[in-house]
């Protein structure tokens, strides 16, 4: 290792080129700051290269494959419905390359200095960057840590072998698993179960006693859809063990009937828990404030207990989602240039690209009742929507929870085609504290899934046109 004798000065350094890091870098450049971005692997981070993007390629093709029967009904395609897995893998690689190149190009046109290497803190205002035999030292005014997180196996599980897969490993398989066992019920696990079942794998999903993470009505519908698609759902009350051989892997657990059950499969997928990527940075010796779990504590400006150090994304508490990292990254640089900023995670949408997709924003019916709100609830089945009938996407519904006293919308939940795209409107409505009339007054394109939102709110007072009369809650 050759250590540079002279340290170089920088205004703002961002460590990590994932969605939070590169968004922060571009926003900083737009605000007139000189920016240095350090990334030791591929630009775009886990999200672009191993997580969000490759997984959504699979959920996309799975959704298309699930349309085969409807397309045949329309006179399109044949009954073969074959999947060329090599072409799918090539398409995934092309998408990742295109998006990664786009990020690199955006950094270049915004005149962001991109340094490849591994960063380590030498002081609260100084880092070293190692690349091979080269070691450069940089002094900075501010630094933003955006190094993300890594998966770890849940408690009691053994170190994973070749048949135990984390998310980034699942989407690198060279063939469809014969029998995929999915352990977990977060959005990643649900997407894996849904998509691989549609791609032709036998799928069993093992969930804990808490069940699916959405509104209870959504959970029941998702369970119905999974059973309809022949996805076996098992409830685990207590994990016992896993056993892996050259030919298969098995998982043993106690069921809700206190009986031991063992499932045998070709692969076991575990979405797992994640830990922040901080150990190699060496920040602990500066006594920076961290949580018991190891996350960096930050204030409303994304600033840590050390004024020169900011942190965003998975290294901070809260949902480990790219949308959070992006929002925090923009807020951090706005704070650095003196602008007032705020990151409020109250109405962050929870989505799953299952078949059909799920989107959930705001209070569930159960949580609203638990905090003592007087509510009225409406649910509109997509089977009553004209466009859903045209497209053959009639599974699912939209559900709205409203405060019966103020008529302010408290939660919107949807399972069905268009849920992810419509979630942006759901968030906006809750952010603006929309009332029922704010949803009923505008015009809605016809025919379209969006009409379901109008009908579900009209249904709060029993006036939905395309729904049978029902007694309100």
Descriptive notes:
Helices cover 31% and strands 26% of the residues. With 473 residues, the protein is an alpha/beta fold. The longest helix has 25 residues, at 85-109. The termini are far apart. It has helices at residues 19-30, 45-49, 52-66, 68-73, 85-109, 167-170, 187-198, 216-228, 322-336, 365-370, 386-391, 419-431, 436-440, 451-458; strands at residues 2-3, 8-15, 35-39, 113-116, 118-123, 126-131, 134-145, 149-152, 164-165, 179-183, 202-208, 232-236, 238-244, 249-254, 260-265, 267-270, 273-276, 309-311, 350-352, 358-362, 375-381, 397-403, 409-415. The chain folds into three domains: 2-151 and 275-336, FAD/NAD(P)-binding domain (3-Layer(bba) Sandwich); 154-271, FAD/NAD(P)-binding domain (3-Layer(bba) Sandwich); 356-461, Enolase-like, domain 1 (2-Layer Sandwich), CATH 3.30.390.30. The strands form five sheets. Strands 1, 2, 3, 4, 5, 6, 7 and 18 form an eight-stranded mixed sheet that branches.
Q: What is the highest CATH level, the class of the largest domain? A: Alpha Beta
CATH topology category name of the largest domain:
FAD/NAD(P)-binding domain
Low-pLDDT runs: none
The percent of residues in helical segments reads 25-40%
Query: Which percent band covers the strand fraction?
Result: 25-35%
Total count of strands: 23
CATH superfamily of the largest domain: FAD/NAD(P)-binding domain
**What overall geometry do the principal axes of the alpha carbons give?**
globular
Strand count, sense and barrel status of the largest sheet are: 8 strands, mixed
Radius of gyration (CA) equals 24 Å
Q: How many angstroms separate the termini?
A: 70 Å
CATH architecture group name of the largest domain:
3-Layer(bba) Sandwich
Number of helices: 14
Oligomer: single chain
């Amino acid at each position: 290792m050759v250590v540079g004798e002279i340290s170089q000065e920088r205004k703002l350094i961002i460590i990590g080129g994932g969605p939070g890091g590169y968004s922060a870098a571009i926003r900083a450049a737009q605000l007139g700051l000189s920016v240095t971005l350090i990334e030791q692997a591929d630009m775009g981070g886990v999200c672009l290269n191993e997580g969000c993007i490759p997984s959504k390629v699979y959920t996309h093709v799975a959704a298309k494959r699930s349309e085969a029967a409807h397309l045949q009904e329309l006179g399109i395609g044949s009954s073969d419905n074959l999947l060329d897995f090599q072409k799918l893998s090539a398409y995934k690689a092309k998408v990742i390359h295109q998006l990664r190149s786009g990020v690199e190009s955006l950094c270049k046109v915004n005149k962001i200095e991109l340094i490849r290497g591994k960063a380590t803190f030498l002081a609260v205002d100084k880092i070293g960057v190692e690349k091979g035999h080269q070691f450069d030292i940089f002094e900075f005014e501010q630094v933003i840590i955006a190094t993300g997180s890594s998966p770890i196996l849940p408690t009691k599980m053994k170190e994973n072998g070749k048949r135990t897969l984390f998310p980034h490993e699942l989407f690198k398989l060279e063939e469809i698993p014969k029998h995929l066992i999915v352990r977990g019920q977060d959005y990643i696990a649900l997407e894996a179960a849904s998509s691989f079942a549609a791609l032709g794998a036998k799928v069993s999903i093992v969930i804990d006693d808490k069940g699916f993470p959405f509104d209870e009505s959504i959970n029941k519908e998702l369970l119905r859809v999974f059973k309809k698609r022949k996805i076996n759902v098992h409830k685990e009350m207590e994990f016992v063990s896993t056993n892996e051989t050259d030919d298969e892997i098995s998982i043993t657990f106690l069921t809700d009937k206190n009986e031991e059950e063992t499932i045998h499969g070709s692969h076991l997928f575990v979405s797992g828990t994640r830990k922040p990527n901080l150990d190699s940075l060496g920040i602990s010796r500066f006594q920076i404030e961290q949580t018991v779990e190891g996350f960096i504590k930050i204030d409303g400006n994304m600033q840590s207990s050390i004024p020169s150090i900011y942190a965003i994304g998975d290294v901070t508490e809260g949902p480990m989602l790219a949308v959070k990292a992006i929002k925090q990254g923009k807020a951090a640089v706005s704070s650095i240039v003196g602008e007032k900023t705020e990151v409020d995670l109250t109405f962050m949408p929870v989505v799953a690209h299952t078949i059909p997709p799920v989107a959930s924003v705001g209070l569930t019916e159960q949580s609203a009742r638990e905090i003592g709100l007087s509510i009225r609830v409406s649910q509109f089945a997509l089977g009553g929507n004209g466009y859903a009938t045209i497209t053959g996407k009639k599974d699912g519904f939209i559900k709205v929870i409203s405060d019966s006293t103020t008529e302010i919308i408290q939660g919107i939940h949807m399972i069905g085609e268009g849920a992810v795209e419509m979630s942006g409107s759901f968030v906006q409505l809750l952010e603006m504290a929309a009332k029922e009339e704010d949803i009923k007054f505008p015009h809605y394109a016809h025919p379209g899934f969006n009409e379901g939102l109008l009908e579900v709110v009209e249904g709060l007072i029993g006036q939905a046109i395309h729904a049978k009369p029902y007694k309100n809650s």
